[in-house]
């Protein structure tokens, strides 16, 4: 019944300042603690796309269970202030999230449509897409107008799963360059690091 809810949320954070669909020429930006973060310029956007890659010593179902815990997923998603489920329909879910931003930058919120595909080999792909008009805008927040991305979980054998988190987004409003530059690295790295920690500890 839960399906993709949590990852759905995971997507949301990463969503803030990333790029994937039209990204090309990925460049390694960080390689630390078994996690690699790649960045790419996106045609027509001033915000870089990001892709995080990590291997987690847990099977796909264990990771999936963590992702389906929508409110709980906020604990491992970078800069997450709130996550909640709006609607669940088959393999599709709609979620709402609020993202903390450092003062004096206005906080962002995001309505995300997540659709899940499961393959015979046990892999799971979650497609992420912002739907900013799904619910009325919240006072005091800037609604993220565009986001496209995916979570891809592929079993590698012996209880190991490769997790790829990739996002392209326009965060709306004005974002200082220093924050944009740090967020596209911190969001995938910190999210994958925290997800791996929980999955491997069985929490």
Automatic annotation (TrEMBL):
Quote the protein name from its UniProt record.
Answer: START domain-containing protein
- How is this protein annotated for GO cellular component? cytoplasm
> What InterPro entries is this protein classified in?
START-like_dom_sf, START_dom_prot, START_lipid-bd_dom, START_lipid_transfer
Q: Which organism is it from?
A: Zestomonas carbonaria
Question: What PROSITE patterns is this protein classified in?
Answer: START (PS50848)
Would the keyword Zinc be found if you checked this record's keyword annotation? no
Keywords, ordered alphabetically:
Signal
Q: In the record, which residues are listed under signal peptide?
A: 1-23
UniProt keyword Cell inner membrane, yes or no: no
Q: Where is the START domain?
A: 1-203
Q: Pfam families given for it?
A: START (PF01852)
Picking any one GO molecular function of the record gives:
lipid binding
């Amino acid at each position: 019944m839960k399906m993709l809810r949590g990852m759905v949320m995971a997507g949301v954070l990463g969503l803030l300042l990333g790029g994937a669909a039209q990204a090309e020429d990925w460049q390694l930006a960080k390689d630390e603690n078994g996690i690699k973060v790649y960045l790419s310029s996106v045609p027509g956007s001033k915000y870089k796309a990001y892709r995080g890659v990590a291997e987690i010593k847990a099977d796909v179902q264990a990771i999936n269970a963590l992702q389906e815990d929508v409110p709980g997923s906020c604990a491992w998603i970078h800069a997450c202030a709130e996550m909640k489920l709006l609607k669940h329909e088959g393999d599709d879910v709609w979620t709402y999230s609020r993202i903390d931003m450092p003062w004096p930058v206005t906080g962002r919120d995001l309505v995300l449509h997540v659709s899940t595909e499961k393959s015979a080999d046990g892999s799971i792909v979650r497609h992420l897409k912002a739907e900013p008009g799904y619910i009325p805008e919240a006072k005091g927040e800037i609604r993220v107008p565009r986001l496209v991305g995916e979570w891809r979980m592929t079993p590698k054998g012996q209880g190991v799963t490769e997790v790829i988190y990739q996002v392209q987004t326009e965060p709306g409003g004005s974002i200082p360059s220093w924050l944009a530059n740090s967020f596209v690295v911190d969001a995938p790295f910190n999210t994958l690091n925290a997800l791996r920690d929980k999955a491997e500890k069985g929490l």
